[in-house]
Each structure stands twice: as structure tokens, then as C-alpha cells.
Amino acid sequence: VERLRAAGAAVDVGRVAADRGGAWQGLAAVAAELERETGVAIAQDALSELARRTLRQRGDWRDRAADAASTGRLAAEYRKLAALVGRGTIRRRQVEETVADRGEEDVWQILGALGDGRGGEALSRFRRLIAGAEDALRARLGFFALLATFCRHLTAVAGLLPVLGVPPGERSYPRFKSRLAPRLQGALPGGGDNPLAGLNPFRLHRAYLAASRLSPAVAARLPWLVLETEMRLKGESRDPDAAIAQLIARLASALRA
After folding, report:
1. Which of 32, 133, 178, 227 is most buried, taking the most CB atoms under 10 A from its CB?
2. pTM for the predicted model, two decimal places
3. Same domain, 188 and 67
4. Rg (CA), the chain
5. Phi/psi at 184 (5° precision)
6. 113 and 98: one domain?
């Protein structure tokens, strides 16, 4: 790398990484260097779309930096687009028409859309997750594990709200964290383990807001829907993705505000 830098073939443009919301940070320096190299600029929305279609994280959720292979692909696709444009600015439409979507879908964005009742977006993101995965089976089972956990949290919160006398629908995270989360995660009236103890307060708040819109009937049926989906994933369905999609659609419909 040092030899490449000395020869002017490599430039340190900093770190490209995904933030907590799933957006890629550090792209401006990369784009500036590629513009200097090619003489062609790129519009901000086009750059965001190019990153969405090319970048992938290293694989460890604790390290949200983009892996080297995907940043290399972003640079290669930029150069191809620059050659296509010739001069001027790369536009989003050109990215959409030219660059295949092989980017990485953020599973937390899927659960966020689902929790807000945005079923169409959640389904679209789930299909993109599977389509872009190097190992579709691993991606499918990994996502289902997170989805099942989210459903268990919904059921637990929905059941504890009336028992603990916690009011539903508090949208302010600071107020929820200081006033309501300790009550939801504290000792239960009849003793026993609290299923919400130790849960990250931010994730608890997301589950709490969703559970606040969930009817008692749906909350009571949710464990069975999760079990039914798991059985279909383990061999009772020829289309496992359809099984998960059906659970997403059912839950999103129940959570739609």
C-alpha cells in the first residue's frame, strides 16, 4: 500500500462506514478523489444510490465499516459511469439504469419499517436482503431469528403494559427511558424472570411503540404465528421466503397506524 501511495496510485480517503440508521458515512472524500481522477462529478442522490447498490459491511455487526471489496466495486462502477457520461455530472437515473443492486440491506431497517407498520417497505427490504446475500440460507435464518425475537418482545410488552400499569404510546425516547423503561424491566408483581430485563432501552422503546398499537387478540396469537413460520422454514414449505414474507405482512397489517 505504501508503494502505491508513493507512486500516486492510492490515496487515503478515510473510513467509509454505516451509521446507526444504516446510511453510509465518509463518502464525500471518496467521491472527491474519484472526481479528481475522472474529471466527472456525481450528484449527492446519485452517490447515495451508488453506495446503496455496491457497499457491504465487513460482516461483524460491531464493525460497521465497508469491506474493501465493496469499496473497490463502488470505485469501479463510478469509473464506468464517468466513462459513460464523458463530462458533466453523474445522475441518479444513470446509476439506477447501469449499476446492478448488490448492496447490503440493513436488517434493523427492515424491523424498523415493520414496527412502524410500513409493510410494503419491510417486504421490499427483506427481498433485497435475500437477493443480495452471498449465503441466502444463512441470511434468511439470521433474519428470522431477529424477527422472532422482535415478536417475543412485542408479546411481552403487550402483556406487561396493563399488568404494570404502564401507559402506552410515549413517543419521547428520553421520557420513556427515564420513566417507563425501568418499570417495564423491573421486578414482576408475581415474581419470576422478566423477559424484558437487560434489553437495550432503544430496542425496548421500538417494541413498546409497536406493542402500543397491537390488539390483545393479535398479541396473544403472535407466538403461534412465529411457530408456524418456523415450522414452514424447517421443511413444511417449498418457499421459505414466502413464509417469512407472510409473517411480515400479517404483523405490519396489525401494526399499521
Report:
1. 133
2. 0.77
3. no
4. 22
5. -70, -30
6. no
Strand bridging mode 41-42 / 17-18: unpaired
**Grid coordinates in use for 102?**
448488490
Is there a single domain that holds both residue 96 and residue 112? no
Give, rounded to a whole angstrom, the gap between the first and last alpha carbons of the chain: 53
What residue numbers bound the domain in which 44 lies?
Answer: 2-104
The reply to whether 209 and 245 lie within a common domain is: yes
Name the residue with cell 424491566: 185
Query: How far apart (Å, rounded) are the C-alpha atoms in residues 60 and 132?
Result: 17
Do 128 and 92 sit in the same domain of this protein?
no
Which amino acid, one-letter code, is at 150? F
Quick one: 100 and 133 in the same domain? Answer: no
Q: What is the pLDDT along the chain (257 residues), one digit of tens a residue?
A: 444 344 444 444 457 766 666 677 789 889 999 999 999 999 999 999 999 898 887 755 455 678 788 888 899 999 999 999 998 999 999 999 999 998 888 888 999 999 999 999 999 999 999 998 889 999 999 999 999 999 999 999 999 999 999 999 999 999 999 999 999 999 998 888 999 999 999 999 999 999 999 999 999 999 999 999 999 998 867 899 999 999 999 999 999 85
